[in-house]
Amino acid sequence: MSSEFLLIRAKDELVCGLGECGGSVTSILQYLLDNDIVDNVLTIKKEGSVYDAVPVLISNSEELNSTAGSLHCAPTMVADLIPKFINDTKLAVVCKPCDAMGINELEKRNQIDKNNLYKIGLNCGGTLMPKQAKEMFELFYEVNPDDVIKEEIDKGQIIIELKDGTEKGVKIDDLEEKGWGRRENCQRCEIMIPRNTDIVCGNWGAEKGWTFVEMVTGKGKDLVNNGIKEGYIESKTVSQKQIEIREKLEGIMINLMKKFGEKHLIIEYPSLEKWDEYWNRCIECYGCRDICPICWCNECEIEKNYMKNSIELPPDPLTFQGIRLGHMSFSCINCGQCEDVCPMEIPISRIYKKMQRKYNEKTEYIAGFSDELPPLFSSTNE
Ligand SMILES: Cc1cc2nc3c(=O)[nH]c(=O)nc-3n(C[C@H](O)[C@H](O)[C@H](O)COP(=O)(O)OP(=O)(O)OC[C@H]3O[C@@H](n4cnc5c(N)ncnc54)[C@H](O)[C@@H]3O)c2cc1C
Ligand code: SF4
Ligand code: SF4
Ligand code: SF4
Question: How much is the pTM?
Answer without folding.
Answer: 0.95
